[in-house]
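Thread: quick sanity check before group meeting

JM: Hey all, I'm pulling together slides for Thursday and realized we never actually wrote out the predicted structure for the chain we discussed last week. Dropping the sequence here so it's in one place. If anyone has concerns about the input, flag it before I start.
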Amino acid sequence: MKINVSSEIGHLYGVIVHTPGHEVSLVNPELADELLFDDIIFEEDARDEHLNMLAMIKAGMPDDGEIFEVVDLFRQTIQNAEAREYFIDQLVREFHEENLTIIERELKELEPEKILEFTIQGTLARSKSFNLHPSPNLLFTRDLAAVVNDSILISRAAKKARLRESLIMETLVEYHPLFSGAKQSAIRISGHQSIEGGDVLVASKDLVLIGMSERTSFTGLMKATEGLLDHGVKTVVAIDIPKQRASMHLDTIFTFASRNECIVFPPPIIDQQDNVVVLQKAGDNIKAESRSSLHSTLNEFSGVDYTFIKCGGEDKTSQYREQWTDGANVFALAPGVIVGYERNTKTFNTLVDHGYAYMDQFEFIEEYGEKGLDPSLEQKIAVSFQGRELCRGRGGARCMTMPISRAPLTN
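JM (edit): ok, ran it. Output follows.
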């Protein structure tokens, strides 16, 4: 599969996901805050909801499209002894406070399946003294990396609870054949910087948006910008967003829906002013110019007159409630074909008011599962899916998907 993503809405060909496993059952209320969860998740229901979501996504993909489970990719990768050693060396170095050097040799002698178990669940059967916390946030694969055109920006997690995920992605890019074409152009973030994929949105092959959030540092943003501008992107738009749990990434308050429409949470996107900086190359340097709003900036540098559709509709209380349950975090299967949690009813009603046909996930599968989705028809469809357990993890459809291949948009 050719690794390439030149927009947020091109027909989806390849995506990386993680169906929740036993690691989410290892999160107890006392650990929830440390593991970045607001609630605990019931594994079996969350798994069923996720598998149903994947069936819906698959129905919207072409016949040769592929959904990759990140755990399967990692399992395949660490069959390679060199990849195992590479990963464990990083693990020991990054988690120095755990004193893993004491068991480094033991880790390197483990079978791949045991390394996988230790990495995801944190358990080491022969040594209770060296158990780590589980990695329940692997569910949100969006934050592992961002494919921009034919390059891949490897995330560097801001929180220790997610750092193992960054190491998994680094190992995949270094050793899995799926990424062999993107490996040489990979953009890497150093240890004292942070950036996560939820803050990176690809408006077009020339234009990328990056949120400076609680998870993406200024230095991480600038390092990513430097790499993107060196690899063909013409303009990076940096958006300063509130440093708080509710808006942990840009995609929790802003996502693309169609060629000229975005879903937005109004307070930090429409109401906020003077929080945008345009970054472009100027010889060997990067020049920065401030702008008044994301809307006007996006229109200026995309050449498209965008409509911002309000998450939760016009009512402020509904906006806040539905943003909390990821009403602004939609995921496009094709231009104008988007999916999101069914509980965000006011957002779906607003989409209908803007000309979207509404379908639930089972209607969508029945309609397109056999005949396929024809993106050339430029339909506008808003598809809801069940996520009563999944939404407890504080992440929506875009958070749970990391596209690695989309069809380029044609005029």
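AS: nice. The domain at 12-76+137-406 is CATH 3.75.10.10 (L-arginine/glycine Amidinotransferase; Chain A). The chain has one domain: 12-76+137-406.
JM: adding both to the slides.
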